[in-house]
Structures are given as C-alpha cells and as structure tokens.
Amino acid sequence: MTQQPSAIDIDMQLADAMAECYADPLRHVLMSYPWGSGILAGRDGPLEWQQDYLSMIANEVSSRNFNGHDPVPPLRVTCASGHGIGKSTLTAWLIKWVMDTRPFAKGVVTANTAEQLRTKTWAELAKWHNISLTKNWYHLNSGGGSMNLYHKMHRETWRVDAQTSREENSEAFAGLHAANSSPFYIFDEASAIPEKIFEVREGGLTDGEPMCFDFGNPTRNSGRFFQNMIGKYKHRHIRKFIDSRTVAITNKTLLNQWVEDYGEDSDFVKVRIKGEFPSAASMQFIPSELVDKCMREDMHVEPHEPLVMGVDVARFGDDQSVIWMRQGRDCVSQGIKKYRGVDTMTLASEVATLAAQKNPNTIFIDGGGVGGGVIDRCRQLGLEVVEVNFGSKATVSGYANLRAQCWGNLRDAMTSGIMLDDDPDIRADLTSTEYGYNVRNQIQLEKKEDMKKRGLASPDLADALALTFAFPVAPTRAGYKGTSIYGEATHEYDPFF
To answer: What is the pLDDT of residues 387-396, one digit of tens each?
Structure first.
C-alpha cells in the first residue's frame, strides 16, 4: 500500500520548488498559478514585455550571487510606460516571488494615494495571491486601514506592507533590516512620489540583497522618477520604456484615437501611450536643459560685481528657510544656508551675522507670510533690507505677480549664463515649478500649496535664488557700495547691471 504524503511533506516539497526559483522569477510565475484554467482560462503565461522584464531580473540576481550574509549592490529597476500594459499584475508577481523564495524578506509597497493603493495595487495582489500555490503560507490583510501580507509563522519578520507615499509616512520606508534576506521596495505611479520618500528608501539598501522596483506613467519631467529614468541617477538604474501599442492586451482602437486627436508628438501621447516624458517647455518654467547648462558653467568673478543676498522665509512646518548669496553670475562661491524649524528672530539674527561677514550690496527678503517679522527684526538690528512681497503686483507687464517676475528674471539670467552648483536639490527646485497664464494672459507660477498636493516640496532654494534677481543691483565701483534699483518698471532687465 502506497503511503500518501503528509501535509508537512507536501509543504516541504513546495518550499524546495520555491527555492529553485530564487533567481528565476519567470519560472516562479509559470509554476505558481493555474495557467489555462479558472480566471486564467485562455492564458498560458505572462505577456512578452513581462517575460522580458522577469528574465532581465533573473540575470541581475544571478550576477550578484548573494551568499546570505555579505551585502550586494542594490537591484534598481525603473519602468516608464503608457497606460494599460499590466504593471499592477507584474507588481503582484514580484511581491509573491520575493516573499516565496526568500525567507524573512521584508518589503514596502506604495502608490500615490490610498485609493489607488487599495483598489489597484493591493487588489491585484489579492487576486494573484488567492490563486497561488503558496496561499496557505500567508495571511493577507486588504482593508480596515491595514494592508499587509505576512507569513503565518513569522508575522513580524517575514512580511510586506502597503503604505501611502505621503511625506509624513516617510519613516515607513527606512531600513527594513533584512540583512540575511532581501529588503524590497515597490513604488507604483512613482512619478508622483515625493523626493523625501526616495531619499529615505536609500537607507534600506545597505544590507542583504536589496531590491527596488519602480513603475509609473512619466507625467512630469522633474522629480526623482525623472532623474532615475533620464536624469542625474540614470546610471544607477536598469531602465525600461514600454509603449502601450506594443502590448497585446491594450485597447489599440482607443490608443489610435488618442494619436489622431492629440498628435503623435503631443505630450498626451508621449505620457499616456509611448511612456516618454513630456516636453520640458510645455510644463516647466525653467527647462532642465537650461539648468544643466548653468551647472556646467565655470566663470570668473570680478571684484566689482555686486554681492546680493536673497532670503526666503519658511511658511510651513516642513519647509526650510534659505539664505542664498550671489556675486554677479557666480551663484556658487558665496554659499547657501538652510534652516528648518527656526523662528523669525533666529533667522533675522542669522541674516545679520552673514551680512556682517559678507557685506552684501543688497539684501532681498520675501515679505509675505511670516517674512514680515524677519524684515522688521533685521531693520531693528540696523540692516538696510529690501522687502519683496511675492504676492504683490509685478512691476513688469506680462507677469501675474512679483514672484513670477523674479523667476522670469532668474530664467533670463540663466539664459545669459550663470554658474550653479551641480546639486540635485537645486536641480529639483528649479525644474519642479510649472506655470500657466491667468485671465489677463500673464505668466503665473504654480502655487506652493498646489505643488504639495502633487507630492512635491516647496521650491525654497529656487525662491531664494530668484530673490537675488528681484531687481537690478548696481556694481561696486571706486569704493562705493552698490545699490538696488528697485520699484522701477523696466522691460530691459539686466541682472548684472
């Protein structure tokens, strides 16, 4: 009589089978789900682009040869695509593959909003988990304010959690402490995830076999997703661009209608079909190419060129106050000071100290909001400062307010040529602000409040730099201090006058 294998024996065999998929996620997907039957009737496996993606990961994992102890370089894969290609399905497979093949793996999955995370990302995971061979290994929570998947025998040490990508949740993306396994992160709709979340995630990539998988429609040509795909950090990432028209499951009729309606080269088609980033000029007030040019500049500063201080005062708890010193075209050598959580009196004292050290020709301070308190205190300390109220009427036609005018002056100066430090924070601030036109057809910059709604930080660095271009400042000559020529409506702005 043949003895039937016990549940323990079957589970051990299953564990061995999963272990054989350690470096082969495509094999795991083909093995784990009932292809051809049930809800998978008529399907024999992943789509072609999904197979290519999974095979690429297999090669990368094999090349790292993680021994279970010594950390290996992070696997960073970033994918920009059009709509409807099956990103959520691939996300679910990646979660299951890591969890099934790596005991004590720990992961975090995020999306831009709680609704998207619950109804798309986590709902897709639940669908595939419920038909997987390893379903009984785990407990899945999918509602009630808690979304996680954990091993039934190792609740705290072998799990993946879903978190929204709000900055106040950033600590949830800190080091996952899976030194003998794989800490992993999956970012869905990564284009809208705040910079701070990406920064915190980096702290979790130092141990074990870390992995990052980022997906998204390339909706904006700024931010960390943009930088990872085609910008400053692209060399650290394996990058994939997927055109929706090349994927079998997409609605080709609708896609062709979009092309007819908007045009092959339109930003709509680039973002939603081709998986390409939009044209810089269509959204960014300061194009990325212009920032790159200024960050490559190397200029000599003449002693007579005016030294200008711009002070942007923080208005919200997570914003920073910034003091930027510029001498002529040199926006690097005199330095930048950043402050978080300081009151107006402290900031005014810092301004006074720097002014005593540097002896600037002019000090421009943003007088909106709490900035007025800094100005009042500076004047009590004997400083001659120029108040620049960003929200006030512009002195130059064509701008909706003085902030837009200052940024316009900055952009003009960058076009003429200024020297900027190659700093990712500066780059992000200068390129993140978008613009439009008001009812009077005047240029209007995106409000900081609206930027925060899109998950972006306030561009405090860029505002401080723009303040140094608020009005022309006369150069120092023959021992005389320069003066600001402000309050005049001049159409021929010369920032280096």
So the answer is: 999 999 999 8
